[in-house]
């Protein structure tokens, strides 16, 4: 079979696939222009990879395609109705990255509240020459109120850390009520506006869909406390990025920690990178060695199942 591998497929998994199939790996290319990519795509039986835009235009060039296996839990890069119409299976990698992403979201909460990257630079640049005063203090995380938007697996794992590790009070907003979360972490369900008004920390971890696109913008940031900290561990498209920049500059909120951007890789001139009250990461939530390898392995399993006519374990479009 011909397998088109794109961006993040870990080497041991790629090598194992190469033993069985004709695999071509692509990275950092313009998928609309690259001749080798377009030529291989026209013959490909399967695609495995991260964040390749699989839309109608691409599918027109891939007449033999049977499976598209995403190496991620998010699948906003896939046009599911279009894939389904063409009888092409789409799969993702849920479950195995849950704790890794939750750890990272908590890392953003802690590093933003306690200004860890900024103070790291302060020490390393030799500025720690005398006893510090309040201009360098951060804000507490423990015993504060955490508002989680999106209570899927990862939201649940963030709530667990917050409740058991940091004695935080959990409020959440989600498509549906989660009785298990309410019971285990004494979490309270709220409408979005109330959550924004009440939270000390707002953590966005919802998937990017038509319904969630741009769901947090100027109005929502203005509802937050001026001492509030905003964390985005979902997708750049779930917020209006310029409105976040304005909210941070105007003092509508205190600080933000973001792992995701509207455009990735982020433009080095993006204002979020210039602000002192932001902590920024390169969309690395699931990227520990262990978890990336497991994600690639699961994606390969999904791919192989689909290619051999079996139902993949993580089929998105049944
Ligand atoms: C995911 O799995 O969706 C992570 O955000 C990596 O893209």
Structural notes for this entry:
With 318 residues, the protein is α/β, with parallel strands linked by helices. The chain folds into two domains: 2-96 and 289-307, Rossmann fold, CATH 3.40.50.720; 98-280, 3-Layer(aba) Sandwich (Rossmann fold), CATH 3.40.50. 36% of the residues lie in helices and 15% in strands. It contains twelve helices and twelve strands. The strands form two sheets. A seven-stranded parallel β-sheet has the order 8-7-6-9-10-11-12, sandwiched between helices. α5 packs across α7. It is globular, with a radius of gyration of 21 Å. The chain starts with a strand and ends in an 11-residue tail after the last helix. The mean pLDDT is 97. The site of (2R)-2,3-dihydroxypropanoic acid has 6 residues, from loops. (2R)-2,3-dihydroxypropanoic acid is lined by residues 72-74, 97, 285-286.
Features:
Rossmann fold; 36% helix; 12 strands; 12 helices; 318 residues; binds (2R)-2,3-dihydroxypropanoic acid; 7-stranded parallel beta sheet; 5-stranded parallel beta sheet; 2 domains; alpha/beta
Tally of structural domains = 2
Order of helices and strands: EHEHEHEHEHHEHEHEHEHEHEEH
| Heteromolecules bound | (2R)-2,3-dihydroxypropanoic acid
Structural class by SSE content: alpha/beta
Low-pLDDT runs: none
CATH homology superfamily name of the largest domain: NAD(P)-binding Rossmann-like Domain
Shape: globular
CATH topological fold name of the largest domain: Rossmann fold
Question: What is the C-alpha radius of gyration, as a whole number of Å?
Answer: 21 Å
Q: What is the distance, rounded to the nearest whole angstrom, between the alpha carbons of the first and last residues?
A: 23 Å
Indicate the proportion of strand residues.
15-25%
Biggest β-sheet, characterized?
A: 7 strands, parallel
Query: In which order are the strands of the major sheet placed?
Result: 8-7-6-9-10-11-12
Count of separate DSSP helical elements: 12
Give the helix proportion (percent range).
Answer: 25-40%
CATH class assignment of the largest domain: Alpha Beta
Report mean pLDDT, rounded to a whole number: 97
Architecture per CATH nomenclature, i.e. the level-2 architecture of the largest domain: 3-Layer(aba) Sandwich
Tell me how many strands there are.
12
């Amino acid at each position: 079979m011909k397998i088109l591998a794109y961006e993040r497929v870990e080497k041991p998994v790629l090598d194992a696939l190469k033993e069985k199939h004709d695999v071509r790996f692509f990275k950092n290319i313009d998928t609309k222009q690259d001749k080798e990519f377009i030529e291989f795509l026209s013959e490909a039986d399967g695609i495995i990879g991260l964040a390749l835009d699989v839309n109608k235009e691409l599918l027109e060039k891939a007449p033999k395609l049977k499976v598209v296996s995403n190496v991620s839990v998010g699948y906003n890069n896939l046009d599911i109705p279009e894939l389904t119409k063409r009888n092409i299976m789409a799969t993702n990698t849920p479950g195995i990255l849950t704790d890794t992403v939750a750890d990272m979201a908590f890392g953003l909460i802690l590093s933003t509240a306690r200004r860890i990257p900024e103070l790291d630079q302060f020490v390393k640049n030799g500025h720690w020459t005398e006893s510090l005063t309040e201009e360098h203090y951060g804000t507490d995380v423990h015993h504060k109120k955490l508002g989680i938007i999106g209570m899927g697996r990862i939201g649940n794992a963030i709530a667990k850390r917050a409740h058991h590790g940091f004695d935080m009070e959990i409020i959440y907003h989600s498509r549906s009520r989660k009785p298990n979360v309410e019971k285990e972490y004494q979490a309270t369900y709220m409408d979005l506006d109330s959550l924004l008004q009440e939270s000390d920390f707002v953590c966005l971890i919802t998937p990017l869909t038509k319904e969630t696109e741009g769901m947090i913008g100027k109005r929502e940031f203005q509802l937050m406390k001026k001492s509030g900290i905003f964390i985005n561990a979902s997708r750049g498209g779930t917020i209006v990025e310029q409105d976040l920049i304005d909210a941070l500059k105007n003092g509508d909120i205190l600080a933000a920690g973001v792992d995701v951007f509207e455009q990735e890789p982020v433009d080095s001139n993006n204002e979020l990178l210039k602000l002192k009250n932001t902590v920024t990461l390169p969309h690395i939530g699931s990227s520990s060695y262990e978890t990336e390898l497991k994600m690639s392995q699961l994606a390969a399993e999904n791919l192989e199942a689909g290619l051999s006519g079996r139902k993949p374990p993580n089929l998105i479009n049944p």
